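Q: Please design a sequence for this.
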């Protein structure tokens, strides 16, 4: 089939998310100027550069109590920082619970029963049980086409990795059971890995 998005796809469900998959989940924790913490998963998230390390996530849609945006982006505008908590299989239910549209100021950490830990380089809380977490300072926020669409870019200023997932000097994604987002309501857990040598690899 072929379709133009502006004309509609004619299917029971939009296939767009399913075509661009799997995607890492940006489980974004933030803190507003009032000190209240927020935690929410974003399915448009990725790394964008090595030196300095940088990541981005996109916020789509808005809440009626947040003036054209969502809690995460509103907090980030106020404080300029956020933390990306890496999601594992063991945290799948908690991550899903934090996707609820709670009133501004109500804690998703509390709703999901998650223990918090402080960040080291920014004034923000993180998910203590996450296999890894990336502390970030905002570098830019881009307004995207469409209603309430924005991309938030941040430089990673601190990285937490749980020691049990470091094996032979590498982060063991299978042992951590990292979760990825697919389309519709589908997710994937990383279990099976294989390696490919690049054509220009030496040795």
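A: Design:
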């Amino acid at each position: 089939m072929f379709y133009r998005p502006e004309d509609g796809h004619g299917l029971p469900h939009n296939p767009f998310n399913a075509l661009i998959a799997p995607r890492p989940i940006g489980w974004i924790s933030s803190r507003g100027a009032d000190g209240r913490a927020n935690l929410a998963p974003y399915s448009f998230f990725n790394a964008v550069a090595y030196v300095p390390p940088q990541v981005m996530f996109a916020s789509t849609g808005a809440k009626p109590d947040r003036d054209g945006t969502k809690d995460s982006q509103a907090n980030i505008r106020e404080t300029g920082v956020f933390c990306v908590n890496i999601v594992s299989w063991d945290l799948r239910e908690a991550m899903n619970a934090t996707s609820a549209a709670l009133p501004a100021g109500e804690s998703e950490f509390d709703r999901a029963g998650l223990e918090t830990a402080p960040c080291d380089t920014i004034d923000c809380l993180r998910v203590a049980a996450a296999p890894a977490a990336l502390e970030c300072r905002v570098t830019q926020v881009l307004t995207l086409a469409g209603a309430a669409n924005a991309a938030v870019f941040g430089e990673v200023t601190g990285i937490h990795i749980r020691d049990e997932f470091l094996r032979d000097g590498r982060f063991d994604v299978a042992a951590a059971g990292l979760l990825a987002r697919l389309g519709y309501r589908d997710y994937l857990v990383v279990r099976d890995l294989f390696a490919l040598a690049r054509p220009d690899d030496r040795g």
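Q: Thanks. Anything notable?
A: The chain has one domain: 18-189. The longest helix spans residues 71-79.
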